Amino acid sequence: MPRFSLTRRELIEKCAALGVVVTATSLPISAIAKIWDDSEVRHATPPNAFGPFYKKHSPQARELRAAGDPGLPLTVTGRVLDTRGEVLEDAKIEVWHADHFGKYDIEGYRFRAQIPLKGKGAYSFDSVMPGHYPDRVCQHVHYLASAPGHKTLVTQLYFATDPVFEGDPDKNFTRDPLLISRELVRPVVLTGDPKTMHAEVNFELCLERL
Amino acid sequence: MKRCRFSFAGFVLAGIFLSIPLSVPASEPKLETKIAVNEEMRFTAISPDGKIAGMLKGNKIGIWSIADGQQIQMIELGVEQPVFFDFLDNGTHLLVGLRHGKIQLHDVQTGKVLRSLDNGAEPRVVRVSKDGELLAAAGGDREVHLWDLATGKLAHRLALELGGAMDLAFSPDGRTLAGSSQDTNIYVWDTKTGTVKNVARELSLATFGLAFVPDGKWLFAGSGDFAIHVIDAGSGKVARSFPAQKMPVIALAMAPDGKSIVAVYRDANEPFGNTPILLWSTETGELLKKNNSPELKANGCGFLSDGRLVYSTMNGKELQVWSLR
Questions:
Q1: pLDDT digits (tens, 9 = 90+) for B79-96
Q2: Half-sphere exposure of B1 (CA within 13 A, CB side)
Q3: Is B271 near chain A, with CB under 8 Å?
Q4: Which of A56, A96, A112, A151 best probes binding to B when mutated, by most B CB atoms within 10 angstroms?
């Protein structure tokens, strides 16, 4: 079903044309629209390297973790928005990462998936905390996110609990030369006792309009 | 030397899988020379005439004579860190890509910079067309820069869809440039117009090495899916594939006569692991030679202009150059 969607600017201009909005100031409608736009601008998620381990045709899944997989269970949640804060319900997200031992599955599709959105731009997936790939410094999850009318986002999620940061990602995030934005290092909430520990991370994706 | 480029990083096709018996006995490598260097160097290049070797570590490139093991030159790049280097013109010149975007041409004997291009983006892969007129450079961003070396001007910015370039290869006539991307596609451009001629989209994993046959009709792609694929350069379609091995192909080099191609394999998850070297017939897909020793860790491999297949290894602080017969 085609989505009915107006940008904020289009909405304000249409309202003005219909007389719904009456300007009480000397500002033109375009200036008012710009003020509204600017007041709600979100920062686009910083891009990050694509890396050499992407594999096409990964399956649709939210459960990347299988019974018995070694490693700290991990749940990642988030939403996909645009820079005006509007939810992108028709976005597509694909993730891939190394296993607990830092190895990528080249022959199959372990820890690779296209994540179906849950509605209102929300997504989540269950996996394990990635290990350290031998030639990379930090644990990371690769993301490929796209939505009609928006720039495709290629980025990576990093974890504040990564031992590389020694508890201080603000100071130490540059230890990975590929990690160019502190913003990509997300807090990790650890729940449960030591035997049932589980990591939870929220990673909101913000795409730029074309 | 038509050198295999070694990268840190490194499906089943609709093509025809050749049923090649892989029982070719391991070929006997011959140690051609040993060169004592004062530290362990990670990457190596050998000049096309086989007379000099270059080694890279940190921000310096050392150049040694293979005949007598004497050091010819040590090029110190100061704060600039090289991310690419290779010999040009039978070893009289050295092409160096620097992390901050410059591409320099050095005189090997004097070490002096003869020419410098400001590529802007990091030039992790640099290739020069056979006639010396064009230079292509690419790095982690989604563009390949194509330079006209006669004018020193940027001729075209060639776009990749999602990822950065993994490898580049000019067709022997220089009219076509192929580039493999981290997004797994292989782009084929017209170098004169800068337009895309076709995009090979069939591969599911990235291609680490590219090489054209001498007539430019076929493009060989060494893939992360453990196989070499033969692509019709005119259509971008995979025509056939060589039998998959147990590791990704991390580098390819075409023999000067185009009759054989050497592939270096390495476990993508073991960047410091062993590197089997296999020589394939381009015409029949037959496996001609192999060295799959578990101890083999090559840091350079390719053909000399006389057709010899050589590779190099480091043994502590000693560079060893081997030929595969």
A1: 888 989 999 888 899 999
A2: 28
A3: yes
A4: A56
The SS3 assignment for A123 reads: strand
* Domains annotated on chain B, with CATH: 2-324 (2.130.10.10)
Residue B72 has pLDDT above 80, yes or no: yes
- pLDDT tens readout for residues B262-315: 999 998 888 788 999 999 999 999 999 999 888 898 888 889 888 889 998 888
Contact A145, A152 (CB under 8 A): yes
What class has domain A73-207?
Answer: mainly beta
Q: What is the ipTM of this complex?
A: 0.86
All structural domains of chain A with their residue ranges:
8-39, 73-207
Full-prediction pTM beyond 0.80? Answer: yes
Select from B164, B205, B271 the Cβ nearest to the Cβ of A135. Answer: B271
CB contact under 8 A, A54 and B182: yes
CA separation for the pair A137, A36 (Å, rounded): 41
Please say whether the beta carbons of B169 and B177 come within 8 A. Answer: yes
Is A1 in a helix, a strand, or coil?
coil
Smallest Cα distance from A103 to chain B, Å: 5
